[in-house]
Amino acid sequence: MMRMVPITLAGGVTVLGVEVLLPKTTLLAVTTDKGYIMCGALDVALLNERLKDRGIIAGRAVGVRTLDELMEAPLESVTAGAEVLGITAGMKGADALLLMV
After folding, report:
1. What's the Cα-to-Cα distance from 29 to each of 20, 23, 24, 67, rounded to whole Å?
2. In 23-66, at which residue ranges do the beta strands (DSSP E only) sit?
3. 75 and which of 36, 38, 59, 68 could share a cystine (Cβ 3.0–4.6 Å)?
C-alpha cells in the first residue's frame, strides 16, 4: 500500500510525504520541487558517485519508522547537491526541507 500526505512546514510551506508499505519494511520520503529526504533505504553514495552529473539534492535519516520521525530526525548523510544549499549531516529533516523549497 502507498500513502501520500501533504505536510506543512514552518512558514506554511507544504511538501509531500510518501509512505510505501513493503513486506517487513516501510519506505519513507518527503519531497519538494528541488529535492527530498528519505529513510535509510536511500543510497547517498550512489547518488554522489554514479549519478553525480544529476546534482541530486537529498538527505538520509536512519532508524525512522514514520513520516513524523523522518521530519524530526537528524540527517545521517546528504548529497553533494544538498551541501551546496547549506544542508548538512546532523540537520533536522524539516529544516533541510525548508532549504529545498
Report:
1. 9, 17, 17, 7
2. 25-31, 35-38, 57-60
3. 59
